[in-house]
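Let us work through a complete example step by step.
Step 1: write down the sequence.
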Amino acid sequence: MSSEFASARLPSPGAPGLAPEQRERMIQAAREVLECHRVLHRGGLTLISDIMRAGQAAPAPFEHYPPDDVIDHAHHAQYYYHAHRSEEEHGHFHCFARILNPAGEGWVPVHLGAISMTHEGLPRALFATNRWVTEEHWLPAEDTIALLDRFVIDHAAPSWPVNRWVTAMLVLFRPHFEALLRQRDRIVEAFQHQHPEVNALDDQELEVTGQIVIDIRAWLAELANA
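Step 2: predict the structure and record it as tokens.
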């Protein structure tokens, strides 16, 4: 992975302090995530193989899987899987909320965060990126955080278990996505201050603004014991 990705690690948020109702939602989401892993693995599949539907060992660099992304038009949510990094990960899911463009040009994506996957098809880390990476409609962190609850993929195409898994991941790791978005804004602001001659949001020297390594079962245990 890029040096930015490796060097911008954040500590995992803790479960103490979360409201009991939120912890219960997150525990239910963890069970959903693990159930999606179970049913796919029983069929000899992984999250990656099911979303790619091609059987190849490695996706074509930067190509979206599926080609037109997965979009829930009722909930205005969107995601896709792709790969373009090093051997440390297989690829990653980019997740978006869609909002009406203030300029009146239809719906535009707002990047909520990304899920990095191992070569075995399991989640390894979450990360946030600079604007140019996904060509998103940029919103400040707090406005983006307010869109997290809108990320719901409530249909079966192209993969029902992957759709349910991605939806549940953003519930299960809500504090992590919040932390990454706030860190993203701090990093972009600092970069802009250091490089006033460029537009930080479009500068390809700044790619990944932070990552958090995750362990689903450890996080579930922490939530259950908080």
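Step 3: interpret the result. The chain has a mean pLDDT of 92.
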